[in-house]
Amino acid sequence: MKVVHLVRQFSPGIGGLEDAVINLVLRQRDRLGYNSRVVTLNGIFTQPGARLPPTEHINGIPVRRISWSGSSRYPLAPAVLAQLSGADLVHVHAVDFFFDWLALTRPWHGKPLVATTHGGFFHSGFAAGLKKVWFRTVTRASCRAYDAIVAASHADARMFATIAPGNLVTVENGVDIGKFADAAAYQPTRHVVYFGRFAQHKRIDLLVRLLSELRRLDPSWRLTVAGARSDHSGEDIERMAAASGQAGAVSVLVNPSIAELRGLIGQASFFASASEHEGFGLATVEALAAGLIPVLSDIPSFSAFLSEAGCGVMLRPSALSAAAFTMEGLAGSGPNEIQALRRRCIAASARYGWEGAADRYASVYRGVLRAGGRWMGPDHHAASQIAAASAPLSSKEVH
């Protein structure tokens, strides 16, 4: 099968979207024998002015990069249509210009279309009112042109069910759970890590405030923030820490390598994210696979992770002191208790391996192509796989 994946950002860019696409394409090639290639933009949004080569092979994946204009929030690249030749199916990742343009031009390109939601476009409060109107009008209309809209999480499924009930299926994001497998500290530590983009909606400022509460209980607590700049730079985070009086207890690691991140995780017992919105929460699953105890904001996808893991701490802006008290109690527990929590977290991550996700995507593709380019549902075996991945999870709090 020849599949073209369209995504606005790809390696060497760093982020959950880039990670999801490269892992899916690699499994399609190595596990399923697909002839998959990637079409993306020729720039990295966090490196304004830099331009990447038009063609490249990344981990053996053919990558074609095209020029674009406009805002990084909605980059315009109409030339993408010239890159679809020979494709049996086009898979669009995220809800952006590519999503709308491929829908609008389907009468001309005529390709079967699958799209993955990857959280939609509600990651921040920017232009919130306009986004809601756009979602109910333009996005709703675009969804009708797709043979399958794949929700990358149960939260996305609830969101898109209001505008695409007839062609929606849930295939939760796969995660490379081997990347940091069993890497967390074996002895309890008072070290909290966050890794991911330095985006405004991730609320890193709340993690700094949480650290202040933790250090009231024990001054040895520390926080490391690792990842790639986005709305915030590393210097911005350092200023947050200084303003709260925590400069000496907060470390910032910008663009760390996988080896550096693994070494950092080996010094920690906790992973914290105060994010206001997550389409899925890839970094959280990687943290669970490492054996880190999750400390997560009260949003649907995170509530599901806490419920599934059976351990962790719910983080609310109005109750940071309560979260800190619970974390201090866990940090003060013995090695046997920490080992039991580590095993529970690692076990909870197992269902998110990419092999299963790639197989579920294959069933969606087969359903689309079997129906001649119109989604009619998967075959019986595939239906059981998708149903298993889509089973509702309890959102009860677990401390």
Automatic annotation (TrEMBL):
Domain (Glycosyltransferase subfamily 4-like N-terminal) ranges: 14-177
A molecular-function term among this protein's GO annotations: glycosyltransferase activity
Domain Glycosyl transferase family: residue ranges: 187-319
Keywords associated with the record: Transferase
Protein name as it appears in the record: Glycosyl transferase
Species of origin: Teichococcus aestuarii
